Amino acid sequence: MSLRRRTVEVLLAAGLLGxxxxxxxxxxxxxxERLVPLxxxxxxxxxxxxxxxxxxxxxxxxxLRSLDADVIGxxxxxxxxxxRSQWRDLAGELAGRLGMRVSFAPIYSLDPTTPGAPRRExxxxxxxxxxxxxxxxxxITRLSTQDPNPTPAPAxxxxxxxxxxxxxxxxxxxxxxxxxGDPSVRIAQVADTRRIMAExxxxxxxxxxxxxxGDFNAAPTAPELAPLWENLxxxxxxxxxxxxxxxxxxxxxxxxxxxxxxARDAAVAETLAxxxxxxxxxxxxxx
Length: 287
Hints:
Layout: H1 3-13, E1 17-18, E2 28-30, E3 33-44, H2 57-67, E4 71-79, H3 90-98, E5 101-110, E6 120-128, E7 132-142, E8 153-165, E9 168-176, H4 184-202, E10 209-215, E11 232-234, E12 252-257, E13 261-268, E14 279-286
Helix pairs in contact: 2-3
Domain Endonuclease/exonuclease/phosphatase: 41-276
GO molecular function, one term: endonuclease activity
Keywords: Endonuclease, Hydrolase, Nuclease, Signal
């Protein structure tokens, strides 16, 4: 029995919601088309704390390992931030313990509280089993939580990596959109996201494989998200993701470029290791 099939059975036994995840083959055929499988996940890790607000990175490592994903987008990632995560580098630790490469894109990068200590950072990250060819931390519109009188302004924290997956270049983006009830900042963030992703499409001669992973803080039918679905396919995982205990809304997403990536299956994993549930999806990349 393959490792992926065993992983799927573990997830289903744990109460995975949504469509059954069928372990992809090394390559899949679609007519004369050759497709390359890639399993991805997105997870807001709540700075290492579970639904109980107890910091427990071991618990999250176990959950992430059980997903058996090739690429994982993470949100609310502390790197030497403060006592809530024991001043630890969560991006580096998760990558090391899972045996994956990492690209961290800070939203905030603040001076340390004591001289000589590492900078205090908070943001998003991408973990990958595949080589990270390049990485960039893009600015998008944000309303800072660190400024007592914030105004919307460009700020970093929209992470992008280019991976090489069985010879294919793949652009993966990790994002965390504004949480406030007023959608105005999310409207601007969606426009920024579309612009950045469109620029990547224009920069190459052939269609680009793009995967957007993140916590959008809005329902799939929210008007501010509608422009995203003009160019991206929202991979429906079959269930809500937030809050992790008795979830009532889906705000965590895997979205892919329509012409170059398709989905085989997707599901929501039932876990209380964060205040969100992760979404995992089996994708097929067009050559």
